[in-house]
Amino acid sequence: MLPLMRQAAGTHRWLQILTLVLTLCQVTRADQVSLPTGPAPIVVPSSNDWEGNDGPWSSFTIEIGTPAQSINVLISTASYQTWGVDPAGCTSTDPSTCPTSRGRFYNNSASTSWEPNEANITTDIYDLELESNLGYSGKGRFGFDDITLGYLGGGGPTLANQTVASIAAKDFYMGIFGVKPQASNFTSLTDPVPSFMQNLRAQSTIPSLSWAYTAGNQYRLNEVYGSLVLGGYDVSKFKPNNLTFNFGPEDDRELLVQLNSITSGDGTSLLEQPVPMFLDSTVPYIYLPEAACAVFESTFGLVWDAKTELYLLTNAQHTSLKAQNPTITFTLGSLTSVETVEIVLPYAAFDLTVSYPIVANESRYFPLKRANDSSQYTLGRTFFQEAYIIADYERRNFSVSECNWDASAVQNIVAILPPTTLPTPPSISSPSNSTQSISTVTSTHPPPIAAIAAGASGGALILAFSALMLILRQRRRKANGIKLSELEPPSNTNVNRASILKAELDGSSVNLTSPLHSNIHEVSGNSDLKSPFPSASHAVEIDSYGRKWPAPPSAVEIGESKNMMMQGEIYEMDAGEVAIEMSGIGSGRRRSRGGGLMSFVEGDDWDRVQMSPGGVREMGSPVSALVSPVSPVFRPR
């Protein structure tokens, strides 16, 4: 009877383990993964307005200065600065609607927290340089001021001492908010000024240097506003695919894709051969080779206007194209993958209007541009109406996905956590890309692609199967043990059982390999079954050789030794330069306020800030210098 009781107790213990494992499977399939907590992504609210002289486009509200001046801006995936339109940007010869059509003014002279850029002793006016390869030009008065995402009091973060330019040039008709995490250099490369994104990361206000963006449009679901997430993405906004792009080799053109083909709805090929294309939401147009533009002209009856350098549409052309309602499919690929992704644009995506000062009277136009060479090949904001872009600057990769137009979809924000780095195996060189890691999600939020879910679910199922095999094996062993004990003399029943007990799973681990990224491994080496998820301190990674390595130390914070930096992380400057930036002693920084960022205090999920007033510094250059072609100009690098 006693052996049978022992067998029942052992079986009960194994059934408990199996129940726990099956529960893990269910939790993983539901993507309810509990991971270490950290800063949440920032969802930047749209302004709920449609603006711009070449769209219209869904804009975003930010506030600059003290007292706060609310302006609407467009998102620039290629810029790392914030620009607002100066009052000099509208003159007496402009329409009365000029201030509102440009997103309202940012008047730096009315801000007590404004500090001019003193990198150069003669002027604080610099060439804008953004999109100069596309023929854009202009000047800006650069300085430093406080910036709030969204309306003040709306819960968005406020950072002090941020790079800001007031612009008057009409090439950039509205202000911009740059999401690229790259420093500005007003003097030399040894004195960089961190961008807004870099400062958010340095303050641990976002989980990683990453963003996700789609421009929105007016023709889907009775208007869909643009969506911008910093440090994560919105699962509900896109349809996942298997293609991940590595950053391009040029720092100013990282978001580079291979455009394999363009086809119309009837199968007509609109592109002779694949070309590299730069993703850039700063501009509205799609810049293609002239040969491709010629095919568009013949296919859709477009006529090039040499004066405006646009494909202006007459009412008759617009009516005809609207009746045809053609679709245009852009097939993107990568030189390192056989996977492709298709982004389909209906004619409505190209049905835009252009107005003053590009043309005297508002007109419809087709946002296609003739590119002079490959440096101009660009997929602009028109493309972003149907594409959802996720860029991860710490892993140096990005994805392009088709937007999801499900009206019932509910916002589901997922954080992109910093990558982990494996130590180099002793005596063996690491293979290239062996330390890559896919984006990780926060608890209760499903990932955008099945990589994490499928990997975790598969690993859990393997664990469940292994546990079941162990149960069956243990039962067989115990059954044999019972038979043997019946033949043994009673004196042997007092053998010390503790000497033969061991860990139930014997410390085995599960390799959770993503089906979408074959060279990526995420694994937990903690076999403690008290919790279905390992603690961060027990994390284990598996390299491509199948060896386990302990998790790396936490990410290096500003001011720490360079020797502690992890492989795969992106750092704009070494620790010494970071210290200069935070202390504000660099030649291009503000000095009167001590430099650095506003200090965050306990508050809501956004983190509150402590405001400190500052004095206004006068500069010799008049505001009119922004629009004068003979103004002394220095070029920020």
Structure characterization notes:
The protein has 9 helices and 34 strands. It has 637 residues and is of the alpha+beta class. Among the domains are: 42-206 and 578-626, Acid Proteases (Cathepsin D, subunit A, domain 1), CATH 2.40.70.10; 212-415, Acid Proteases (Cathepsin D, subunit A, domain 1, Beta Barrel). The N and C termini lie far apart (84 Å). Helix 1 runs antiparallel to helix 8. The relative contact order is 0.17. It is globular, with a radius of gyration of 29 Å. Strands 1, 11, 12, 14, 15, 26 and 27 form a 7-stranded antiparallel sheet that branches. Strands 21-20-16-17-25-18-24 form a 7-stranded mixed sheet. The model is unreliable at 1-8, 20-34, 421-462, 478-624 and 628-637 (pLDDT under 50). This is Acid protease. Residues 1-30 form the signal peptide. Belongs to the peptidase A1 family. GO terms for molecular function: aspartic-type endopeptidase activity.
For this structure, the quaternary state is: single chain
CATH architecture designation of the domain at 42-206 and 578-626 = Beta Barrel
**β-strand amount:** 25-35%
Structure classification = alpha+beta
Q: Can you count the beta strands?
A: 34
CATH topology of the domain at 42-206 and 578-626: Cathepsin D, subunit A, domain 1
CATH superfamily of the domain at 42-206 and 578-626: Acid Proteases
The major β-sheet equals: 7 strands, antiparallel
> CATH first level of the domain at 42-206 and 578-626: which class?
Mainly Beta
Mean pLDDT: 74
Work out the radius of gyration. 29 Å
Total of helices: 9
Signal peptide: 1-30
Protein name: Acid protease
GO molecular function: aspartic-type endopeptidase activity
Organism: Hyaloscypha variabilis (strain UAMH 11265 / GT02V1 / F)
